[in-house]
Amino acid sequence: MLDSVLRRGQTLDAAAARARNLSPSDHGLAVAIAGEVLRRIPDLDALIDSATRQRLPDDSKARMVLRIALAQKIGLGTPDHALVATALPLVDGGPRRLVHGVLGTLLRRGVPNGDSPQLPPDVEQRWSAAWGETVVEAARRQIAQRPPLDLSFANDSEAQTYADEENGASLAPNHVRLDSSSVTELAGFEAGRWWVQDLAASLPARLIPPDAVDVLDLCAAPGGKTMQLAAAGHRVTAVDSSASRLGRLRENLQRTHLSADLVEADALQWKPGRSFDAILLDAPCSATGTFRRHPEVLYRARPTVIGDNAALQAQLLATASQWLKPSGVLVYSVCSLEPQEGEEVIDRFLAEHSDFSIDAPALPDFAGATRRGWVRILPGLLEAEGGLDGFFMARLVRRP
Ligand SMILES: C[S@@+](CC[C@H](N)C(=O)[O-])C[C@H]1O[C@@H](n2cnc3c(N)ncnc32)[C@H](O)[C@@H]1O
Q: pTM value?
């Protein structure tokens, strides 16, 4: 799994889905170990380098096996004898003595508790330039922890009842936060009482005016925001270019007894044939805001990837803007912590589209609009309550 993620650029979910030859409990453990490694690579490597005379190549098997062993020690509290006994067979017939020696040295010396691991150096540089050292420090604390589970509900009375029943916290209307546990075993999953959605990810759909009738959800799958819009009573057209992700959207709508018109199309080619009262564009992005659940995003988001995304986002936004009625509302969002994919996309759009302006939204108190009128969710926000994914959103209004 780690090889697929770090060498071939896959997501951990995709790599995990391909590892089918393991029992469910082994599979769960393997995914947890891989996740712990991805949360801590710079720290693990610094430890390893402190105990070797010659620096091991980044992609050597010895380094990867040592990372796996140390991540279990630091992140999962695995006893020393168990991690040594599972690490050494991985290097049988290879650098076994080296791995044994380095591991022995580090375990005798004692490893740090790892509650604030370094992020990859290029990410630390980018985020400290964009957001400052305090935000980077918050992100370090957050990457070490498993985030809580956020559920969205079709209406607030359902959410409040569920929060009481399950001892959850409601931090916004229609929202309940639980300590993380298995989703399918939670009460109400089969009955479709809720869907899983990070609280930050639930904010963009809240910016669509309640009286908008015909709403376009562009880049909609797997549909967290489509369900919010459908539950709020809008007539929703949900467009996505991925057939498999639209399949998940269809299942989600069925399970929650909600409805929307689904369209499989590339938004840059699609011809809607009409205009909409409101449009939500939740654009594809580097997803660096989701680093708490998907730490590998920090390795996949190379500068060229971010630049390519920004170019696509600008095209999607310009295209969507043509389908909006006069006085209509266009919400743009990305689960990215890169200004290139958020603030800069909107700045450029406004410079090129004088018939649009920013309309600062009213959201729950913790998500206030910035001086420029958009909303930026950064690591550190609501930290005591369990934090939020990083997000950017802006509400644009077309002139009458
Ligand atoms: C950030 S995800 C959307 C998440 C979704 N809005 C939700 O709340 O569940 C971005 C989506 O954009 C879709 N996408 C990427 N390029 C697209 C394009 N050119 N046209 C339509 N959809 C596209 C991807 O398939 C992906 O499902």
A: 0.96
Domain-located, residue 66: yes
Are 158 and 80 in the same domain? Answer: no
Asked if 210 and 232 touch (Cβ cutoff 8 Å), the reply is yes
Burial of 141 (0-12, 13-18, 19+ CB in 10 A): middle
| Cα of 220 from ligand 1 centre, angstroms | 5
Candidate from 219, 285, 293 with most ligand 1 atoms within 8 A of CB, to mutate: 219
Q: Looking at residues 112-138, what average pLDDT do you find?
A: 97
CB 116 within 8 A of CB 141: yes
Burial class of residue 311 in the structure, from the number of CB atoms within 10 Å of its CB (0-12 exposed, 13-18 middle, 19+ buried): exposed
Residues with CB under 6 A from ligand 1: 219-225, 239-242, 245, 266-268, 282, 284
Return the CATH number at 234: 3.40.50.150
Last residue within a domain, chosen from 80, 109, 138: 109
Question: 66, 335, 337, 394: which is the annotated catalytic residue?
Answer: 335
From the CB of residue 148, how many other CB atoms can be counted at a distance below 10 Å? 18
Burial class from Cβ neighbours inside 10 Å (0-12, 13-18, 19+) for residue 159 reads buried
pLDDT digits (tens, 9 = 90+) for 359-379: 998 888 899 999 999 999 999
pLDDT attached to residue 361: 87
d(CA 365, CA 381): 11
How far, in Å, is the centroid of ligand 1 from the Cα of 115? 34
| Minimal-distance CA residue to ligand 1 atom 10 | 284
Point out the ligand 1 atom lying closest to the alpha carbon of residue 285: 1
CA-334 nearest atom, ligand 1: 1
Q: Is residue 131 part of a domain?
A: no
C-alpha distance from residue 121 to each of 117, 124, 159, 290, 398 (Å): 11, 5, 41, 18, 41
Ligand 1: distance of its center to the CA of 104 in Å?
Answer: 47
**29 and 19 together in one domain:** yes
CA of 357 to the centre of ligand 1 (A): 24
Active site residue 219: no
